[in-house]
Sequence to fold (118 residues):
Amino acid sequence: QVQLVESGGGLAQAGGSLRLSCAASGNIFSINVMGWYRQAPGKERELVANIHSGDRTNYGDSVKGRFSISRDNAKKTVYLQMNSLKSEDTAVYYCNVLELLPPGRSWWGQGTQVTVSS
Fold:
């Protein structure tokens, strides 16, 4: 059974930084994409960033140049370094893992709250 455990959320001031971590446990196919999504109140869940097992990265437009995603394959952990935080970054952040071979299993973490005060 695969579980994703997120950590690192909390309160930060505008312009500050936070680092999120998501550790996966269980049997996950090695070719996968690990990523972070976020959902603010009243809004749809959106992609923040993801990273392929081959280290190719993809970022949402609103976080480009401010956030950086990385992963440690040996630890099955993905990180999100968030710098120059803005109040609009306030949301619940969810970790996701997607296997890239059929049947394309996917898992979500429970979410961690990030609140940025202006």
Observations:
- The CA atoms of residues 21 and 114 lie 13 Å apart.
- The chain has a mean pLDDT of 96.
- The longest strand covers residues 91-99.
- The chain is about 0% helix and 55% strand.
